[in-house]
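User: You have something folded?
Assistant:
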Amino acid sequence: MNIRGWILVVVILLCIIFAGVSYNRLASRLPHSITIASGSECGAYHHLALQLKKLLRLEYPRITVEIQTTDGSADNLNRITEGKVQFAFFQNNGSSRLGGADGDESGESVEAFREVRAVANLYVEVLHIIVRKSMNVNGIQGLSGVNVSVGAKESGTIQMAQHVLRHYNMSVNDKQMHKLNFADTLKAFDSGEIDAAFIVTGSLSPMMRKLLGTGKYDLLPIQEVNALVFKNTAFLPFQLPRSVYSGEHVVPTQDTTCLAVKASLITHRDVPAFLVRTMTQTALSTTFRNWLRELSEGFAKEEQDFPIHRGAMDYYHRGEPTFSSSVAEAFNDTLPYLLVLAILVIVVGATLRQNRIEKRRSMSMRLHEFMTRIADIEADQRGETNPQQLYRLLDVLSRVKKRAVDDRVDGRLPPGDDYVALMVQLDGLINTIHAKLAMLAASDAVTGGASLVEPPEQS
């Protein structure tokens, strides 16, 4: 095999290797597992996380979905920023934009969350301020001196409670404020450890229906809800209708004004776009929407505490002619291999070009050698009258012609007009010498030469 053939083989092998590496690179981007931070096991976040897990496993059975129970929204946010989970449920209460709920103790700087991205708003969470009926508390200010659960330390509930209590010159750090998660709050109510609680959950939550349906508790309204919404644009006013949680007793006894926030799904900026798009599509599927009354595509992409991830944007703008972030990521992943392949192609191309130049030069030199040899033979035969010498020159010309044919077959002589001209010159010179030998033979016959000219024995 000549060098051109070997180079072609090398190029094909490089292309096969490149294709294999690229496929493996793209395939490796498919995760073996997805981790979702939820919340308390008896809370709405955990229930929704289980539903997402079920839907993802149906669609992608080879992927393991792990759910981490947490203290709540703030804990989830920290796990996202630390890269411990890929997705998390989060309460958009404005704390991440304002530097934390406390402003000094529990809040992180806005800079710490710059890598966090939103996926979708899922539903509206309502702040339920629950108080034991026997306490005869008429408003939030009446909670002063009452044992109150304000939510777990790293929950969205405690952050929201702090906003509300601060408005009334109170704090979650006051002595009678207990930092309990949702499950511990329910236990503390049963044991009598607390008499009131801030609980943030979806309206018509089964746990709230069970708790308030006993008739032992009332919902406190927030009279200054408009002021709180004005202070924090992440808050929404929400009206709980009279008797919405009724069991044997009417709860609440009248329409109750509450605060609400959007509960959403968040992720990290570095989570692959195709994975976020898949999660967005799953969260907005008809099956998952059945669990959430407010969820629609319009609601999902409304303003949130964080910018929307490019993968989620791909899904929201799927009907528009945009360049997919997934394609961009795939291209970015394979860019180093593309650069290597480009360099190899350039090197191989330059080698092939140099090889062609050298081959043409070699063929030109070979052709020149033949032409020079033919010119020398032509010069030798011009004044030659000795038949023996002429036959020797014919023998040389025959061997030259055979070599020329062999070189052409082996690719050592150029095709086309140059080769044709060489063969014409060879045949012309052979015919010239044959004509001269014929003339010498005729001349000997006329002059009565002793014998006809005999060709020499072929060596």
Remarks:
- Confidence is low (pLDDT under 50) at residues 98-108.
- Residues 353 and 453 are 55 Å apart (CA to CA).
- The beta strands are 33-37, 64-68, 87-92, 116-132, 148-149, 177-178, 196-202, 217-219, 236-240, 256-268.
- The first helix runs from residue 3 to 28.
